[in-house]
Amino acid sequence: MKIFLAAMALWLGMASANADPVDGGHARVDLISERAVATPGETLWLGFSFEIDENWHIYWKNAGDAGIPPRMYWDEETGLPVDQIGEIEWPVPHMIPVVEGEIMDYGYDDRIVLPFPVTLPESAEDAMRFGGTLDYLICKDICIPESVELELFLDVGESQVPDMEGAELIAGALEKVPPQFEGEARLTRQGDSWILSLAGGQVAGQVGDARFFPDTHDIVHAADQPSEFGDEGLRLTLKPDADAIPETLSGVVTIGQGESERIAVRIEAEQGDALEGTTGIAAPAARNGAGEGAGSGPNLILLLSAALLGGLILNLMPCVLPVLSIKAVGMVQAAARGEKAHLRAHGLWYTAGVLICFAATGIIFLALRSAGQFVSLGFQLQYPAVVAGLALLMVLIGLWLLGLFNLGTSMQNVGSGLADRRGSAGAFFTGVLAAVVGAPCVGPFVVGALGAVLDKPAVTVMAVFLMLGFGLALPFLILSFVPGLHRTLPKPGPWMERLKQAFAFPMFLTAAWLVTVLGNHPAAGATAFGAVILAFGVWLISVSGGKFRMPVLAAGAALAVLAIGWPILTGLQEGPEAGQTESYASVTPEPWSPQRVDELLAEGKGVFVDFTASWCATCQVNKRTTLTRADVLDAMADANVSFLVADFTRPDDEIAAELKKRGSPGVPMYLLYAPGASEPDILPTLLNPAMLKRRLGAFETASLEPDQ
After folding, report:
1. What is the pTM of this model?
2. Which of 155, 204, 500, 574, CA to CA, is 20 to 30 A from 73?
C-alpha cells in the first residue's frame, strides 16, 4: 500500500508539472520544472516556456528601440518569498529589424524557454506552489500585450525525480545562455564612435559575423557594428546614444553565422585603451555575407567556381598574353606532328607547370600567414631583384623568338628521343612562366575567391589556388584533348617563323614594363645594362656560328649578374620618393594614410582611395581608362571628394594591414567614403567612368537636398 501511495503521489506530481500550456492569444505559455520531485535545500531550475505563433516574436531583457520583456508577478500563495526566486537567465536573442537603419529590437520567436533558478528551503516537506501572472508583449506587424495565469506544484521528497520533458527544455535553454567572458574587454572613445575590444578567453582566434547586444540603451541599436579581428580577439565599432562614455558597458557579444554555429559571451567592458591583437583580419561577413562560412558546403563550391572562372579570365589579361603566344606556337608545332599522344603530353605538361607554380604560391602564402605576415597577389613583384630577373628573362625569350639562338641545339647528339623531352620541358616552363607573370593580374572573380579564404584552413586555401591555376591552363588542356579540335589549328609554314618573330615584341614590351616597375630604384638602370650585355652576348654567339657559345654566355651572364646585383643588394628597399604623386586635372591626389582619411572625413569631405602598384596591370588599365579622365576627376571635385593614393609597389606594412582589414587579397582595391561616413564602400576591381561618376553624383545630390 505504501508503494502504491508513493507511486500515486509521483504520478500526481508529474501530472501537475506537465499541466497544459495556457493560450495567451498568439503564444502558448507554460511554467515548467526540471524536477517532478525535488529535495529540501536544493537549487533547481524552473522556466517560462513559450510556443509562439509563426512570424510573431517576444522580447529579450533589453527589447531594443521598442518593446517590453516578459515579466512575472508572483502571487501571495507562492511557496517562496519573491526575493528568493532567482532572475531569468536570458538565452542569446536575435536581431529584429523593425525599420531598417532606424529601429532595431532584440527578441525571440518560434520556441523559447526562459529559465530561472529556485533554491528550496531546508525545511520544505510538502508540495510547493509557484503561481502568478506573466505579462509579455508579443508583436508581428502590430504589438499586443498578453497575460497568462501560470501555476506549478512541485513535490518535495527524499530523492530527486526528474521531469524528463521539462528537464530537456530547460537544459536546451541553459545551453543558449552566454557564459561569462574569460578574457579582457575594453571600451574606448574614438572620434564620434566607441570601440569595444575583446581579447583572450573564448574569442581568441575566432572570426565570423559579430554583434553586441547591450544590456542598456547607451548605443544606437539600429546602427551597423563594423567588426575586425586579430589573433587575440576582435573589435566592434559602436555608435553611441549617450553623451558620456559609461564606466562599464555590459551585454552579450556573439561571433559566428547562425544559431548553431555562433559563440556568445557575456561581457563587462571597462573604459581603457583598445586591446592589442584585436585588428588586422577583415570580418568574414563583409566578404561572404550571411549563411554558411566559406570553406564548407555550397559556399566552397561557389568559391571554387569563382576561382575557376577567374583563372579562365586571366588568359585575357595583358600580363599573360605574351607568354601564351609562346604556348600557341608550341601547340601549332605539336599539332603538326599529328600524334595525339604528343599533343596531349604537351597540354598536360603545360597544366602541370601552371598548377605547380600556383601550389608553390599557395604554400608561400600559408607560410607567411602562419608567421603573422600579410601576403598579396603579385607580392613577388614588390622586390626589385625578382622584377629585374623577370625582365631579363623576357628579353632572352624575345631574342629566342627572333631566332637569334636556339635553346638546346648543342645537346642534339644526346639522342633523338630527347627532342620530345625538350618539348615537354618547354611546355612545363611555359606553364610556370604564365603563372608567375599572371600573379599581379587581379582580375574579376579572383578577388572574391582569394579574399574569401584569406583566413580559412590551409586545405581550402590550396583548393582555391589550384582551381585558379586549373582555370588558367584549361583552354590549352581542352585544345590538347578534345578529339579533332587540334585540326582547327593552322598548318605549319613559313608564316610561323614570321609570327614567332612578331611574338618577340610583346616579350620586349613586357620587359620594358617590368623595368618601369622598378621606377627610380637604382636597379632600373642596372637591369637595362644587364639586358644589353645579354643581348650582345647572344648576338656574338649568333655571328660566331656557335664557336664561343659557352664561354661568351657564361661571361655575359656573369657580367649581367654583377651589373644588376650590386645596386640591388646595396639599395634593395629603395623606391620612388615618398609622397610622389601625379597632378591630375581638377583633383590633386595625395598619399594615403589612415590619419589623412580621418582628417578629411572630419572636414566633411568624401574620400576616394586608390590602392595601386606599378606592377599591377589591372591598376594601370583602370588608371588610364577611368582615374585620369577629366570628367571623372571633375565629378570628384563637384562631390567634394578627395583623391588619395596608396602605392603598394614596394612592401608597406600600413597598406598591407588595410588590405587585410578589408579582406582584399591584393591590389587593386578602391575605397569610397561618403562625406561623414565612418566606413567605406569597396568598389569593383574593374572600374568604368560611368559607374564611378554615378556613385559620386549620389554624394552631390545628397548634399543639395537640405537646401532644396
Report:
1. 0.45
2. 155
